[in-house]
Amino acid sequence: MADLKLALRGLTRNRTFAAAAVLTLAVGIGGTTALFSVVDAAIVRPLALGEPDRLVAVGKIREDGRKFPASHPELRDWRERAGRKGMDYRYFA
């Protein structure tokens, strides 16, 4: 208890140091909370899809065997074609 009183007395004497300490703690706690929220939403929680086991990545393969993503017009075309067959295409960049 005496140590706590001594620490509080020291912080009240040096207000600049106390403000810097509080600001550092606030930024650290806020940054950690924000990072955890992003990781939780992007990695930990499952995708909000009805059937995530049917999720696929589409693209093209060049003649030399290298893979590259399809363009948005191609994806729209594939989506229109799939709409006639009862399938659903959703894409994001």
Strands in their spatial order, largest beta sheet:
1-2
Beta-strand percentage? 5-15%
Radius of gyration: 27 Å
The helix/strand class is mainly alpha
Number of helical regions: 3
Supply the number of structural domains. Answer: 2
For the largest beta-sheet, the strand count, sense and barrel status come to: 2 strands, antiparallel
Our measurement of the CA-to-CA distance between the termini, rounded to an integer number of angstroms, reads 57 Å
The total beta strand count reads: 2
Low-pLDDT regions: none
Task: Give the overall silhouette.
Answer: rod-shaped
Describe the overall structure.
The protein is mostly helical and 93 residues long. The chain folds into 2 domains: 2-44; 52-84, no CATH class. The protein contains 3 helices and 2 strands; from the N terminus they run ααββα. It has a two-stranded antiparallel sheet. 0% of the residues are buried.
Quick overview:
This protein is mainly alpha-helical.
